[in-house]
Design brief:
Number of strands: 15
Strand order of the largest sheet: 10-7-6-11-12-15-14
Helix content: 25-40%
Distance between the termini: 51 Å
Number of domains: 2
Structural class: alpha/beta
Largest sheet: 7 strands, mixed
Strand content: 15-25%
Length: about 325
């Protein structure tokens, strides 16, 4: 059975892919793990060609992994989103956390943010930056809160344990929950936070765990985060700001996701890969020319790489831009 399927139409605009572009041969960390787990040779990746869409200029692999394989890559082969969890660990151990440096200040000084949403991944965007600015919590309190969240959630996992252990673990879990409630009384939640999910098979999710705790479950406890299934999101539900942080290329429906964000939010902030040497673990990647396509669709776009303080965040392979259906500059 082939591991690959044909993706002959652009994932964004549906135009048939015709223009093959050159790609690199050096393997990254993820690609090496895929080859190892599936007992493949490096030559296997030569079957996957890279194309540039001639309508929207997205870069896309074709053929690419079929849905069973891609789901396995993001749940089993490499189920934990280590960069996302490392952001959380850094947040817990840092007095004044700035995952995206001055990005939140750039936007928040222009208009008031009361309802903020992101897509699929809870620790890649501005949730933690906002939470720290709401509270300026000491590291000791953050560590205490985190420890109790992990205990509360992991101690409920009692399958296979004898009755004595079950009773002990449940008591520990209940004790941790009481501590969480006490600690949260010291915390401000001024901004309502939402995570919109599409449960894509090419996004981290069901096995995105750390210390036996899932990222979304943890985020709901820490941030008072509310989750919304994308198909249940009504057009009259309005956010002030919507963030897509390295997640737009982890769905089979990027056009649906971006349109949803634009329809339901005053402003959309995007951080994306723009590498023409697209990695094999990705189905597609955006490009700078893709932004010109958006402008032709009457979407206002502003690249803001030069406004971000830390140039490590805005290297040649990453792009920050804001977009809106109404003209809005920062």
């Amino acid at each position: 059975m082939s591991l690959l399927s044909n993706y002959i139409d652009c994932a964004y605009c549906n135009k048939k892919l015709t223009k093959i572009i050159k790609n690199r041969t050096n393997l990254n960390f993820y690609e090496k793990i895929i080859l190892k787990d599936y007992d493949l040779k490096k030559e296997f990746f030569k079957k996957i060609k890279s194309y540039e869409c001639q309508k929207c200029f997205m870069i896309q692999n074709n053929p690419w992994f079929n849905k069973d394989v891609s789901a396995n890559i993001y749940s089993n082969v490499y189920g934990q989103h280590h960069r996302s969890w490392q952001n959380l660990i850094d947040f817990i151990n840092t007095d004044y956390f700035k995952n995206h440096k001055n990005l939140y200040e750039l936007i928040s000084k222009k208009f008031k943010i009361k309802n903020y949403a992101e897509f699929n991944s809870p620790f890649m965007g501005l949730f933690l930056d906002i939470f720290d600015r709401e509270n300026s919590l000491k590291v000791s309190l953050k560590k205490n809160l985190s420890k109790n969240i992990v205990t509360y959630l992991s101690s409920r996992q009692v399958a296979g344990k004898n009755n004595k252990i079950k009773k002990l673990w449940m008591a520990n879990s209940n004790k941790a929950l009481k501590k969480i409630k006490i600690l949260k009384k010291k915390i401000n939640y001024d901004i309502n936070k939402f995570l919109v999910l599409d449960h894509s098979d090419i996004a981290w999710g069901i096995n995105d765990n750390y210390k036996s705790v899932n990222s979304i479950s943890y985020a709901k406890e820490l941030l008072n985060l509310k989750t919304i299934n994308i198909d249940e999101l009504k057009n009259n539900f309005k956010f002030d700001l919507f963030g897509l942080f390295l997640t737009l290329d982890h769905t089979h429906n990027p056009r649906k996701i971006l349109n949803m964000a634009l329809q339901n939010s005053k402003l959309v902030i995007v951080k994306c890969h723009i590498n023409r040497n697209i990695n094999k673990q990705h189905l597609f990647s955006l490009s700078e020319k893709f932004l010109n396509y958006l402008k032709k669709q009457r979407i206002f776009v502003q690249i803001i790489n030069d406004r971000i303080e830390d140039k490590k965040l805005t290297n040649t392979h990453h792009l920050y831009f804001i977009c809106s259906k109404k003209k809005f500059l920062i």
